[in-house]
Amino acid sequence: MKKLKLFPRTFITTLAFMALIILLANAIILFLAPITKELPTENADIALEYYAESPFSYEINQDTVKAIQRALPFSVSICILAALLFSYIYSKQITKPIKSIARETTKMSALDRTASCSTQTSDEIGLLADNINTLYHNLLTIIEELEHEKNLVQQAEQQKIDFLRMASHELKTPVTALSAILENMTLGIGKYNNHDIYLPKCKELTDQLCGMIQDILDTSKLSKYATTEEVQEIDISDFLKEICEPYAMIANAKGVQFSFTTSENLLANVPPKLFKKAISNVVLNAVTYTDAGKSISVRIRERAIVIENECTPIPQEHLQHIFEPFYRPDYARNREDGGNGLGLYIVSSILTNLKLAYSFLPMKEQLGMSFTINL
User: Fold this and answer.
1) Model confidence over 343-368: pLDDT tens digits?
2) How far apart are CA 368 and CA 370, in angstroms?
3) N or C end of the chain: which has fewer CB within 10 A?
4) pLDDT tens across 106-130, in order?
5) Which residues, including other chains, have CB under 8 Å from residue 67's CB and lie 6 or more apart?
6) How many CA atoms lie within 13 A of 70 on its CB side?
7) How far is the C-alpha of 340 from the C-alpha of 327, rounded, in Å?
8) Angle at Cα 45 formed by Cα 42 and Cα 51, nearest 5°?
9) Alpha carbon of 353 to those of 64, 157, 346: distances in Å?
């Protein structure tokens, strides 16, 4: 019995109980119904008194017994057929929602996202189906979140690997050059005997290495700052004014016109040090790559910080790689210009961590580039 499936087990159990009730009912009719005796009918009170005095002194009516015995097979057969029909309908109604739940939970075990237990009842079976659906939905949500976190971790690990690979490559070039110059100076080979020329060159390469190492260290600390620095509400106008003051002096010394304008008070909730690092890198980038006689503009526009500088626009084929670490367009942004390709990568990493949308596109009204940060 235990090995049978739910429907046949329910059907057989129901039919057995129905058959037992039928047999018991017919047995009662067979043995009790034919017991008759003529009682006084003229007066009801006399009849009851007679019955009370001798309740078991009955005479069995043989004709009645024979009639019941002849009808018994037909009545039992009809009752059995009715029991079969009732047992089938009852078993079907009871097992149908359970089989439906079993079928859908089988799909759920295979993580079929279309699986859903649907029942038309509001009883315990319907409640069970709703609970299973809720549990499965929560499970899928947790799985999606875990997959998302897994992808983020994989991306972060891959970015670290790529960054270390590119950093080692970038550091290798000046280190190799420095080592070659020092070796030739030590051996006194040719022009390298002129220490007055090549010692400053070594100092320049050393400073370049120090700057790159510092930028690499700053970049490696970004994730730590993003999780440890507290978010504060700041006034963007005052915040930008403080950042722009030293860069305005550098720009003026280069002969570059620097303007800062704001027409509205804009408040934002950001970690100040981390956000300042991003803005500073963008402004420094603008100052570095703007020629004398050109202009730089920093302003607030519709809950966005806009930093624009007049320069040769960066072609689209370079823009799609401009936020990659150590990337420099060959025609203008190279080591000799002072760039190491980490500035915009740091900006991108910070703004991505802060979930702030940004864009770096050519200006529409004049030649130049425009960096926009939406708050």
Assistant:
1) 788 888 888 888 889 999 898 888 88
2) 7
3) N
4) 888 888 888 888 877 777 788 888 8
5) none
6) 5
7) 8
8) 95
9) 96, 15, 11
What are 366's two structure tokens? 């004049």
- For every residue of the chain, which 3-state class applies, written as one string? CCCCCHHHHHHHHHHHHHHHHHHHHHHHHHHHCCEECCCCCCCHHHHHHHHHHCCCCCEECHHHHHHHHHHHHHHHHHHHHHHHHHHHHHHHHHHHHHHHHHHHHHHHHCCCCCCCCCCCCCCHHHHHHHHHHHHHHHHHHHHHHHHHHHHHHHHHHHHHHHHHHHHHHHHHHHHHHHHHHHHHHHHCCHHHHCHHHHHHHHHHHHHHHHHHHHHHHHHHCHHHHHHHCCCEEEEHHHHHHHHHHHHHHHHHHHCCEEEEECCCCCEEEECHHHHHHHHHHHHHHHHHCCCCCCEEEEEECCCEEEEEECCCCCCHHHHCCCCCCCCCCCCCCCHHHCCCCCHHHHHHHHHHHCCCCEEEEECCCCCCEEEEEEC
